[in-house]
Specification:
Layout lengths: L1 H22 L17 E7 L9 E9 L4 E8 L4 E10 L4 E8 L3 E10 L2 E10 L4 E10 L5 E9 L2 E12 L9
Antiparallel strand pairs: 1-2, 1-10, 2-3, 3-4, 4-5, 5-6, 6-7, 7-8, 8-9, 9-10
């Protein structure tokens, strides 16, 4: 009879442990949930202006951060000639997805992100010295094959002009490099 009670208690404990384990899975703030397909992956993007003589690539790594309250994106261009890190999070006060982007150059940005129907639109204000660029806005389109494209525009002297454009594909061998 004691063996039976011990077995029942053990099964109950195991069941509770499994249910707690499932509840402790990798949660993500509901406002960031559309970014989940990108998480824990590394992507390599080729810039539109890249040529065989002068290749231009960006490697970006997307990660769940701060117990799922944020998404961290680190990236580097051409093996570390330039790079940066973003922290994306829900801002309760602003009622918006916001981010801070820190770079290896002499500037940083603060922006907002709208995620809708497989597209992410961003708008950021530049802080510091960035070749007279005052603002950046971009659109990122998530494709069904898991890749994505980014098209950016830069505001210089009060006028918007075309910026960088790249197509990113998952590449598990690519590495973000900081020098």
């Amino acid at each position: 009879m004691n063996t039976y009670r011990i077995l029942i208690a053990a099964i109950g404990t195991l069941g509770m442990a499994l249910s707690l384990s499932a509840a402790d899975g990798p949660t993500l703030d509901p406002h960031l949930e559309p970014l989940r397909p990108l998480l824990e992956k590394t992507f390599k993007g080729e810039f539109k202006e890249s040529t065989p003589e002068k290749p231009m690539f960006d490697v970006a790594r997307w990660e769940r951060a701060l117990n799922g309250k944020a998404v961290r994106i680190i990236h580097s261009v051409n093996n570390g000639i330039y790079g940066g890190e973003s922290i994306v999070r829900w801002d309760e006060e602003k009622q918006a997805v916001t981010y801070h982007y820190f770079t290896t150059a002499d500037f940083r940005t603060e922006g907002t992100m709208t995620i809708k129907d497989g597209k992410i639109t961003t708008h950021e204000i530049v802080k510091g010295k960035m070749n007279s660029i005052q603002e950046v806005r971009a659109e990122m389109e998530l494709r069904k094959d898991g890749s994505y494209t980014v098209k950016a525009e830069y505001m210089v002297n009060g006028k918007w002009s075309p910026g960088r454009e790249a197509t990113y594909k998952e590449d598990s061998t690519a590495k973000v490099v900081f020098k």
